[in-house]
Amino acid sequence: MEIQSCVKITTEWDIVAARQLGRNVARELGFGTVDQARITTAISELARNIYLYAGHGQICIEKLFEGGKKGVRIIALDEGPGINDIRKVMEDGYSTSGGLGAGLPGVKRLMDEFNVESTPGDGTDIQAIKWIR
After folding, report:
1. In 10 A of CB 79, how many CB atoms?
2. Which DSSP state fits 49?
3. How many CB atoms sit inside 10 A of residue 110's CB?
4. CA dihedral 19, 22, 23, 24 (to 10 degrees)
5. What is the pTM of this model?
6. Beta strands in 28-84, from DSSP E residues, in sequence order
7. How far apart are CA 38 and CA 67, in angstroms?
8. Which residue of 14, 45, 109, 120 pairs with 9 in a disulfide if CB–CB is 3.0 to 4.6 A?
């Protein structure tokens, strides 16, 4: 494992930078174009959540090499207000911003592994992994 790079999320342009970083790393690892799009979509959702709900945080992209498998881990970290009810935000259609409510459940569907840890008042740590098939 190696941390490839992190992008601080404070503006909407940082979301674009995080997406581009993720696409580049996915391409370097050998992901096909469909999985590159899945990865960049997941990054976009996670970065947008940081921007909208926490105000600032970071997206880190990590290359994974485990047991002959290659993959990418997306880490979304913030020190925002945290998530009071993780189960509720993982329901399709739930939105606090008036959006479609596809954010975190959508990220979970796009990726192979997904984990969210959050402490109200302390922030959120979301990790999602995609493996090359």
Report:
1. 13
2. H
3. 20
4. 120
5. 0.91
6. 57-66, 69-78
7. 23
8. 14
